[in-house]
Write a structure and sequence with these properties.
With 262 residues, the protein is an alpha/beta fold. It is built from 11 helices and 10 strands. It is globular and about 50 Å long.
């Protein structure tokens, strides 16, 4: 079991922001990454649909022997992780918007959160938000349209910058000092976001925390690969793989990319 891969899935290429953190902090672990780009964006879909896709992705990864599954998608985590945990017999790691650290650290008493509709309307998000943000103004914004642009490889474009300005300007007006990126696609936009909000607002994403948690759970479950060999990473997409390749172009990892119909 220990030599089996860590499975990672997302609605598309966004989960690579988490995958990068995982491969950096677990250098001897093989991984299998699944980009369900055909069904992206999940963010505007019903809970039933998100659940259906999450089950399909999980069964793909379990079918390939993964010892643990990282749900590298806030939308899938907030809508489906409790079902996955109660249905399958392996550990699951999820990703949720990091509102707790933002709410604890804010000095202006105002934080911004950019996430999908599916995440912001989920019960899990509401519960967490209510628990930690008493007395704090939380400016919630659905990032509609951002994920399709990223999936199309249009990251560093005027279209993206204009969309981000539209979403971030009201947060600047509300005097936020922390911006939570509540979607695993968004860390790829940090350079553009910084140009809009400047350097005094702290941007928080959950990638590093997810990698840390994955390592801790593997350790605790005695599932770490004890062989010190160079790992291999298999990446699959159910659409054209050009955006996946674009996102990985500076990666030092050894990987293969395949387009599969799933
Ligand atoms: N990357 C996903 C997330 O973290 C989902 C984006 C989408 O498919 O809408 O929420």
């Amino acid at each position: 079991m220990n030599k089996q891969a860590i499975g990672v899935f997302d609605s598309g290429v966004g989960g690579l922001s988490i995958w990068k953190e995982i491969t950096a902090s677990l250098p001897y672990e093989d991984t299998i990454y699944l980009a369900d780009s055909k069904n992206a964006p999940y963010g505007q879909k019903s809970t039933e649909k998100i659940l259906e896709f999450s089950v399909k992705n999980t069964e793909f990864l379990i079918g390939r022997g993964c010892k643990i599954v990282v749900v590298a998608c806030n939308t899938a985590t907030t809508n489906a992780i409790s079902f996955l945990r109660s249905t399958y017999d392996i550990p699951f790691i999820g990703i949720e918007p990091a509102i707790k650290p933002a709410a604890l650290q804010t000095k202006t008493n105002a934080i911004g959160i950019l996430a999908t509709k599916g995440t912001l309307s989920s019960e899990l998000f509401h519960t967490t938000s209510q628990k930690f943000t008493e007395g704090v103004t939380v400016v919630e914004q659905v990032g509609e349209g951002i994920v399709p642009l990223i999936e199309a490889g249009k990251i560093d474009t005027q279209e993206m910058a204009d969309l981000l300005k539209k979403y971030l300007n009201p947060m600047l007006d509300a005097n936020i000092d922390h911006l939570v990126l509540g979607c695993s696609h968004y860390p790829f936009l940090i350079p553009t976001i910084k140009k809009i909000i400047g350097t005094t607002i702290t941007i928080i994403d959950s990638g590093e925390a997810v990698a840390k948690q994955t390592k801790a759970i593997l350790e605790r479950s005695n599932l770490l690969n004890t062989q010190r060999a160079a790992p291999h990473h298999q990446l699959y997409s159910n659409t054209d793989t050009s955006t996946l390749k674009l996102m990985l172009k500076n990666s030092k990892e050894q990987y293969s990319i395949e387009e599969l119909d799933f």
